[in-house]
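Researcher: If convenient, please comment on what follows.
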Amino acid sequence: MIPCVQLMFVLKQFLKALVLPPLVWMFLLLVVLIWWRRRWARRLLFVTFCLIVVLHSGICGYLLRYPLESRYPPLLEPTKAGPYDAIVVLTASTIPAGGLIPFPSIDEGMFRRLEEAWRLYRIQAKPIVISGGHVNPFTPDQDENKIARDYLIGWGVPTVDVLGEAQSRDTFESAVNVARLLREKGWKRYLLVTSAVHMPRSMLAFASRTPEPIPAPGDFTVGKRDLTVLDIFPTEHAARGVVASVHEYLGLVNYYWRARFSND
């Protein structure tokens, strides 16, 4: 690993933590506390309070998430998508064994991505590539990619049909590394499986570096919406969705720049 590249990745993780909630709210409240005697500081407190209430509400979460998840429809009948050579699945969070956790597991998003890949495999058996590795630069590698592969194998996918690409730390690196793997195998078209909210960013990266992806989103979360008065109040569930959606929009901006100007 080139030290400069590693440093840029670490800086990106810090920057992401700074601009996403809750740290951004804590920073604004700290500014208010330091300059409380100024009139603009009291106004900033009011604005911060309003932003927290509005941006963590169910209504705002729906408005932010719907454009992302509706961009690509589910691939219900992959046989109609034309011939393809592989199924590429992007990893989400895995949970290594340790502490009170007796055995490795995966989070809901990763489970639903693998579930979609398994459904597609049963319709038309093609090799499944699990792309994504260790992300946190401050913790040891726990072989997270293998945890995801083991789930598919446990569900009945033959070991020979489950391939791992564990070097990537983000989606753009996955696009670069998967392109190399596909060239080595002589494969071209492939189904790209990830969460629906993550698909626009993934397609931007993969289309620029790994041509001929076929979007096959899973893990949809936006269902029929019957708004109630409770949706105007902030909730933990809505806050998580808003943070994830804002992360995707920022990622789209970042990947658009990388696709056009990066030499990755």
